[in-house]
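Lecture notes, unit on protein representations.

Consider one protein chain, 506 amino acids long.
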Amino acid sequence: MSFFEVLWSEAQEASTPWVLGVSVVAFLSSKLASIDRARFKATLFFLAAHLLGLVLTAAMVVHQSELTDAFRTPTWVFGAVALVGSGATLIFNVLLPRLRMKLPLILQDVVVAIASVATAVAVAGRAGVSLSGLIATSAVFTAVLGFSLQDVIGNIAGGLALQIDNSIHEGDWIKVGDVTGRVVEVRWRHTAIETRNWETVLVPNAVLMKAQVMVLGRRQGQPVLWRRWVFFNVDWRHQPGDVIDVAQSAVTNASLPNVSKTPPPDVVLMDMTDSFGKYAVRYWLSDLAVDDPTDSSVRATVFFALKRAGMSPAKPAHALFLTEETSEREAEKTEKRLERCRRVLDALPLFRALSEEERETLAKGMRYAPFSKGEVMTRQGSTAHWLYLMEDGEASVQISDGGSQKEVTKLKGPTLFGEMSLLTGEPRYATVIATTEAECFRLDKAVFQQVLEARPELAEPIALLLAERRAQLEAVREGLDADAAKTRQAKDAVDLLARIRRFFSL
């Protein structure tokens, strides 16, 4: 027989057509499906070893060599292992995913390993190789090897247990000792954990089986949420109830990314010292990867809310003895604040009809009211008889139609908003949300009334400006053209003038 005839005969006896067919299908599937290429490379290695052994076996047969069986048996074994590997690839990575089933990788490896060993033993037995003598003579060696590899075996057993009982999944955030991170893979020997510091920690599976493991953000039947605690201190000049109301309202109403609305945030008094109360904002984090940035946003929100309410964070007691608040120092601080208020008033058209003395009156009555990014500065439909003058920062003006929220314009300091509520007493026309940190001052009705009572004729130019701003908002919301907006503006000016006079009893 020729070499090729012998080669074909050996290929049929070794089931090579089946091995090649399944391997080719598995290889094509690896190009289309998401398959672990590193694992499939092992299958390709055994396939290549099978084909090479087939050629060498055929050559031995042609030359009638005594080494024919020495080449034939490994060739059959390599082919059987390649067949098992290719079949496992099709089952675990193609068929089961289509049935929406997925076995853990380590369990897949165990199944493939057991099937490969069993197939290799069966094929070797078919070739006439007796393994009983090998098993008998290697018993002592196996015992010694098992004793020396007990840690490795423990890690493997731990990995199997973790995968089988489904206690830890890929993507879970866990804490083991001082390591906190996201599980990215459970392997034979270790579990890989990626930390927020861009580190990958390899924790032996045996350690996970023995140590206490905290799975963050997991509660049965609930979404992934993790409660965070943000602490702050306020001295006893301010009532705890007032502090809690200010901080809780600010965090609850702010549009802070990754802060869950359900359950809502809350504020509690955690401890009482001689000079201050220790408070904590407790909120639920929806993205566990951004804990510190979200904590920072919550702290900024609380800081600005306390500032607006005139509640400064507590200072260490010894600071009271280091800085003397003299009348000269207080006057200097007041003058700096007044200068900022004057610059804002001078920059805004609404106050240009006022004299210098009248603007000075308003400046003295303005209160510092800063906002952090994401805070709701005014809410549509609420009643509040004051306006805000934004010295610096940016904000988004949004109107709700009962369902969705639509942005109608953006504000950038220096500007003002809330003037309708101040001058007519009507509810807020729109919701204004800070898109950056915003330096603002608040002007109340009582202060503005002093100016209007002294000079009632100021109501008319103010009404014209208010009508113009309202027409701009309505044109966006209702899609009015230029002529319709101008007509609406003239009508609103008359109506607003009457309402201002009525609201201020002019």
